[in-house]
Amino acid sequence: MAWTIQGDVDRLIRNVRRHIGEATANEWSDTEIVDAANEEQPNIYMDVLLPADKGYGDYSGNVDYVADQEMYDLPHGFIRLYEGSILDDDGLKLYDLDVIERDEKHAKAGIFVEGRKFGIAPIPESADSDAIKIYFARMPVPAHTGTAAAFDATSITFADTPTIGYKLTDANAYLGARVRALTATTNAGEIAEITAFAAKTGVATLAWDNLPTGTLTYEVMPDLPEEARPLWYMKTAWNLLMDKDAGSRTKLELLASNIKRAEATLLHVAMNRTDLRTQPLWVSEI
pLDDT tens digits for 114-164? Predict the structure, then answer.
């Protein structure tokens, strides 16, 4: 017997449908709703959460060394690079890697940003898995659901074609994102954080506290914090209604008024929240 739990993507769909006045798929499919919500996530980050400067959007993840390779892909939606750490074979920190300027890479050890990649100085001489951990800020990753192609205690292979939403295919795309087991024979509801992602294979590295069993359906959870969700649902609904010119004037006026209040509330909460940041603000930005 498989157990199924309701996840964040399901909650997103139900709340957006409440705002657009469509309880089940008719004018809009579930995929259309999630795609619209994924497009709206970065706007809320950029307009409200990141200006609050309280550590929203900060993550960390591990990167493999490639022999004689200096430059590596930045995470999806990269904004800032804070610092790095050299890890030992057990994943424990040996020492810090500071962010340096690009023209310092021949004189100092550290990490630096160049274009859409980050570099390591000195250049690694040999390959090594999970060699360094980087601390960074990025835009939210798009949520999706699917059936795992494979999984074990330390990894999950994402579905080639998600059930709802879409999958990123760039290296390191999902660093810091969280995966929830939606359906499993045992341990449905378990959540694990992605610490590495291989784009070519679609394999995400993670560690389940309690390994799900059986056929596993999963969700890549939305990145937005709980306090931002009400605004997110309403703005997604507004965009859907406006795109299809499907909302009555009264409905749109009410929704616009509620969005304005929700934006003010979120800004107040974000500005007055305890700083979430644990890493120093020694940063390099695009």
Answer: 988 999 999 999 999 889 999 988 889 999 999 999 999 999 999 999 999
Q: Evaluate whether residue 281 is within a structural domain.
A: no
Which tokens hold the place of 260? 């304005």
Tens digits of per-residue pLDDT, 86-120?
999 888 889 899 999 989 998 899 999 998 899 99
Its pTM stands at 0.84
278 band by pLDDT with thresholds 50, 70 and 90: low
Residue 134 sits at φ, ψ, to 5 deg, of -110, 145
User: Do 39 and 144 fall within a single domain?
Assistant: yes
Domain span including residue 171: 3-54+140-226
230: tokens are 């009400």
Give the single-character DSSP code of 228: G
Does residue 270 belong to any structural domain of this protein? no
Which string of DSSP letters, residue by residue, matches 32-95?
HHHHHHHHHHHHHIIIIIHHHTSSTTEEEEEEEE-TT--EEEPPTTEEEEEEEEEE-TTS-EEE
Q: Which residue shows structure tokens 């909460």?
A: 269
The closest alpha carbon to 223, from 73, 35, 54, 8, belongs to: 8
pLDDT beyond 60 at 279: no
Q: How many domains does the chain have?
A: 2
- Does residue 133 lie within any of the structural domains? yes
Q: Residue 248: CB partners within 8 Å, gap ≥ 6?
A: none
